[in-house]
Amino acid sequence: MASALINVPAKAKRGQIIEIRTLMSHIMETGFRHTAAGELVPRDIITSFVCRYNGNEIFRADLFPAIAANPFISFFTVATESGKFDFEWIGDNGFSESASARITVE
Amino acid sequence: MKACPAISVAALLVMAAPLPATEIPQAQRRSGFSFMAPETRAMQDDDTANPGMLWVLDGEKLWNSKAGAASKACADCHSDAPVSMKGVAARYPAFDKRLGRPVDLEQRINLCRAEHQQATPLAYEGHDLLALTAFVARQSRGDAISAGSDGELQPFVAKGRELFMQRQGQLNLACANCHDDNFDKHLAGSAITQAHPTGYPEYRLEWQSLGSLQRRLRSCIFGIRAQPYDYGAPELVELELYLMSRAKGMPMETPAVRP
Predict the structure, then answer these.
(1) Which ipTM was obtained for this model?
(2) For residue B22, what pLDDT is reported?
(3) What is the pLDDT of residues B42-80, one digit of tens each?
(4) B222 and B173 in contact (C-beta within 8 Å)?
(5) Closest Cα to residue A78, out of A18, A7, A11, A38?
């Protein structure tokens, strides 16, 4: 069960700089920790995040073991046209989640 | 000599240390929120930045999904959580007539599962129990805490208070030695708060996860090098009850964020 929290302004003026904030639930297990019995806990992290604005990639990030659980990623873009933001998180063990949000540009 | 004032100050501190533990006056009681850095406060206040909301979202799914042999969802009996669960968490731990003792919100959820859903209990600190508890407690955000007002609860509040004042463990410390006598100071860089459990289950940055008040209590007990009570132990529920009664009148903050 993975949840995402997305914050994209519902409306913006053309040319306005907007902030996009995303929060994805994930344990981000580093792969460096051991259990009490001494066994290595296998790495389980998100490795990449992509945001597309009406199909065009506008932001991409690679994630690494030192990033805390439930990664919070925030970035800025320019509101050019009404449409859809698509978000995609990909990680270890076949982890793949997506979410989207709509924006109206006036 | 330069060292002399320092030594005399240290001596004064040592002499002043065994202060009688007295409860904090009502007007000076503060939520743990007021001890935090502005950045952490902002994280708690923004529902799209507060990681605790991830558990609340999962809790909402669980609330509406059928479970157990009875194949009933929480929503089938309690319907709309924002209405039916409003203010409930602010009253917990509450007295259970059948058991003759107080139960906390996690135990109430598991009692409900056993009695009405004929489902197996959810594990303490497991994702599902934390999520359901967070979802239920979220409905009380902003409501004034009123737990421990019930007359039947008074002996249990008193037991919890006794435990709070009781020195224990290899460090021979009581909860009160930090939380009543030394709040607003620091313990290894962390703020010592007044022990008002206003936002459980809460997201601790240190845990990188949501956790219950019992987890917090067990960590504290481990910290004074005493043997922690097991999850669900009556002693932990009595402590929870006493702490909630200390925080009477404060608004609920679930899911709170703490460092």
Answers:
(1) 0.89
(2) 73
(3) 999 999 999 999 999 999 999 999 999 999 999 999 989
(4) no
(5) A18
CATH numbers and ranges of domains, chain B: 28-259 (1.10.760.10)
Q: For residue A47, give both structure tokens.
A: 């490795």
State residue B142's pLDDT score: 96
Cβ burial, residue B241 (10 Å; 0-12/13-18/19+): buried
Residues of A in contact with B54 (CB under 8 A): 3, 5, 23, 25, 70
Distance between A26 CA and the closest CA of chain B, angstroms: 10
Reported residue count of chain B is 259
Interface check A28 vs B, CB under 8 A = yes
Task: Summarize pLDDT for B80-107 with one digit per residue, the tens.
Answer: 999 999 999 999 999 999 999 999 999 9
What is d(CA B1, CA B251) in angstroms, rounded to the nearest whole number?
Answer: 52
Contact call for B48 and A6, based on CB within 8 A: yes
B221 to chain A, any CB pair closer than 8 A? The answer is: no
Spell out the domains of chain A, with CATH numbers in brackets.
Answer: 4-105 (2.60.40.10)
CA B252 to chain centroid, in Å, comes to 11
Residues A20-39: what's their mean pLDDT? 95
Q: What is the pTM of this model?
A: 0.89
Any bridge partners for residue A96, and if so which? A90
